[in-house]
Fold:
Amino acid sequence: MDETPLPVIDWNEVATGLDREGYALLPDLLDAARARALANAIASGATTHPAAQPDGVGRGQLCNLPDPLPEPLASWCRDFHAQLAPVANRWSKLLGWGRRFPGQSPGYRALASRLGEGDYLPLHHGAAADAFPLQLVLLLSEPGTDFTGGEFVMTEQRPRMQSRPMVLPLRRGDGAFITAAHRPAKGSKGHYQVTLKHAISRVRSGERIGIELSFTDPQG
Structure:
């Protein structure tokens, strides 16, 4: 079993970032050697099988990762889910979703993306509206060395306002917790729901490999 300790994460800062921006960066979640090894395994196809494209046009190869996930991700994600559940439950209460997310026994749906020159993923939600509202994304290739382009992009749509674009500055081994579909925002009359989507911009050269991991639970 992998004995890699859980990365040091300031969970108060994570919660603040999710509340304020809809995402929280996790620099150096995986070291370069682990990120490269996982990218190589995905590229070889030994641990993956084809997956459906998100709705929309898009180009590139998508693969499902096995269950259980490769270590140390499987162990870490159990802890991540437990730490994120209070945020999910607070959002559910603020927006009247009528759902409580347990902090234990999570499941996962992990999607790997291999994007070559000209490939991209369109804007899409990471989960259904009634699913766990947070997910993990992880970049396994090095921008500027392994590929160019391929930025991770998010958009946030608030009622009666133009969409707000955001670009996450991910390097190899970096992760981020992101809003899967909806989150609360505070207005003058209380909290209201905003909608977020994410995408990967067109890869200009090389190959970009990353992971998008959705959390599930016993009710999901």
